[in-house]
Amino acid sequence: MACKPASAFEAGYVGSAQKPGLVLGNAAVTPPPGLYMFDQAVAYSGSLIGPGAPNVGGESTSVHIPAVAAGLLWVPGWTLLGATYDAVIVQPVMMVDVGSPVNVSPVGMHNTFLAPAELSWKLGDSGFYVKAGFGMWMPTGTTAGANGLGNVGAPWWTFQPNFVVSYFRDGWNLTANVFEEINTASTVTGYTSGNVLHAEFTTTKTIGNWTFGPVGYYVGQVSGDKSSAFYAGAVNVNRYDIWGVGALVGYNFGPASLNVWATQEVSARACRRHGGVWIRQRSRLARLHRLRQPQLSAVGAGCAWRHARANHVLEIAAPNPAQRRRTEARLG
Does residue 85 lie within any of the structural domains? Predict the structure, then answer.
């Protein structure tokens, strides 16, 4: 499917606070009580292609986006409405290296992610879990340029309600993870990008220390943009929809787990297609360390670390300020 060079969000913005596919493999299960520190390294590589994409001598412009992030996961052992409570905070740092003829390499802090409340319900002995939460991307990232989008941060708040359903039993992880990004107006331009809906699907099987299976996702803009005087009323009127499929392979080393997955976006409307085209590979290395834990029973202590694998990984975005997007003017 051919993609239009226009996308339905403010010029210079990647289109979502969280890159599609970053929480593939996560389940609605919460680890045992404790304070956990986790870190994650993510690398993107690929090229810009499609209508309007820059190139030199017929060669596509390369893009490399390394990112690291660290966070805390707090599970105090509280129950609310029969659910286990937890809270998460994450701080990503990244670089965007875009080759010739663009030649830009901004480095900085991405917006901080905070989830002050997540609730996970275990539905008896059925193997099913349900999690609901509320998170936010706070405008703490590095910004630059006339519209504040010349670096990796975004000058606005993004609120993110989340709902997860999992079957997590006998080595199976069948998960549907649905969340929406609700953007506020930019504090620099006053422009408001439309809300973005994510749905990510995991079907994996764990045998011994190995985990493998198919994954997929959908991401799309579900509400329109609102322009401002900064752009003299110009607004992006298109919306985008992206479907991606792929596979995940993981290995649990004990104190650390490695998950590698690849996805191909098989359908993309009003955007440049990713996966095997723009992003050729994604890798994730996540480690989860317990810093503090309440007193556990002998049985609980024995199984605590087994359940404390990095099932709850952070969410970070990979902005690409080199992408140039055309706006369409809406008069009046």
Answer: yes
Residue 13 lies in a domain: no
Residues sharing a CB contact under 8 Å with residue 193, sequence separation 6 or more, in sequence order: 8, 9, 10, 13, 15, 183, 225
Q: Which pTM does this prediction carry? A: 0.76
CB 3 within 8 A of CB 273: yes
pLDDT digits (tens, 9 = 90+) for 119-160: 999 999 999 999 999 999 999 999 999 999 889 999 999 999
**Would residue 2 count as lying in a domain?**
no
Q: Report the domain count for the chain.
A: 1
- Tell me if residue 319 falls in helix, strand or coil: coil
Q: Three-state SS for 191?
A: coil
Please state, in angstroms and rounded to a whole number, the distance separating the CA atoms of residues 129 and 126. Answer: 9
The answer to the question of residue 312 being in a domain is yes
What is the extent of the structural domain holding 242?
Answer: 34-329
Q: Report pLDDT digits (tens) over 233-273.
A: 887 767 888 898 999 988 888 776 777 887 777 776 655 44
